[in-house]
Design goal:
Helix content: 25-40%
CATH topology: Uracil-DNA Glycosylase, subunit E
CATH architecture: 3-Layer(aba) Sandwich
Number of strands: 6
Shape: globular
Distance between the termini: 27 Å
Largest sheet: 6 strands, mixed
Order of helices and strands: HHEEHHEHEHEEHH
CATH superfamily: Uracil-DNA glycosylase-like domain
Structural class: alpha/beta
Strand order of the largest sheet: 1-3-2-4-6-5
CATH class: Alpha Beta
Number of helices: 8
Strand content: 5-15%
Length: 242
């Protein structure tokens, strides 16, 4: 089944790719794309802002931090081509959200089911550290994207930065706003924030810093994804082992 909003999502992606709102990010993403890493010297980097991708009928929005300089900034697709993406897509595959456990390029045949992947900031930031101002500059893009994903019921936040962005995003994505507890709930792995029309759930970011140190393990992310399925009203999927 196709979504009637697919043309609008494609048009939005084209607009996002032309964005130049943040001078620091524009300079960095373009410098990285021009200089390239030795291992990818023969490749043409994307070097522009990225829209999200996935199932237009998704019930789950996966919200990351920002594109990696030599990952998504190179391949032109969120979480594609770096170690964080390797960990994330393997988990999505085990949970039944992805058709394959690896994501290498925009044309590798990966299909997402019931999931849309995007990020709080659309350009690769220096040292992988976007600013709050850059997050807020990207917020209107995310709000427009979410408004077109009419089936989304759960926002899965990968890290504290994404959690803070989602608190702002879900409040601006509806005409009346969303009532949130006061004080503002803090991010934590597995923390849930019920809401209508969107609930939120936190997960440590699948960065190498977290996965190599054991702060985030396969079993931990699998448990969060299973709970995400439940919150989204999706049937349980048997964890894949191959």
């Amino acid at each position: 089944m196709e979504s009637c909003n697919q043309p609008a999502l494609a048009a939005l992606a084209g607009e996002i790719a032309e964005c130049r709102r943040c001078p620091r990010l524009v300079a960095w993403r373009e410098a990285v794309a021009a200089e390239r890493r030795a291992a990818f010297a023969a490749q043409t980097y994307w070097g522009r802002p990225l829209a999200g991708f996935g199932d237009p009928l998704a019930r789950v929005l996966v919200l990351g931090l920002a594109p990696a300089a030599h990952g998504a900034n190179r391949t032109g697709r969120m979480f594609t081509g770096d170690r964080s993406g390797d960990f994330l897509f393997a988990a999505l595959y085990r949970a039944g959200f992805a058709s394959r456990p690896v994501s290498e390029s925009r044309d590798d045949g990966l299909v997402l089911r019931e999931v849309w992947i995007t990020a709080a900031v659309r350009c690769a930031p220096p040292a992988n550290r976007p600013t709050a101002a850059e997050r807020d500059a990207c917020l209107p893009w995310s709000a427009r994207e979410l408004s077109l994903l009419e089936g989304v019921r759960v926002v899965l936040c990968l890290g504290a930065f994404a959690w803070d962005a989602a608190l702002r995003l879900t409040a601006t994505a509806t005409a009346t706003g969303i009532s949130r507890p006061s004080p503002r709930p803090r991010f934590g792995h597995g923390v849930e924030l019920p809401g209508e029309p969107y609930s939120m759930i936190g997960c440590y970011h699948p960065s190498q810093q977290n996965t190599f140190t054991g702060r985030l393990t396969e079993s931990m992310i699998d448990a969060v994804l299973e709970r995400t399925r439940e919150l989204a009203g999706l049937s349980r999927r048997r964890t894949r082992t191959t």
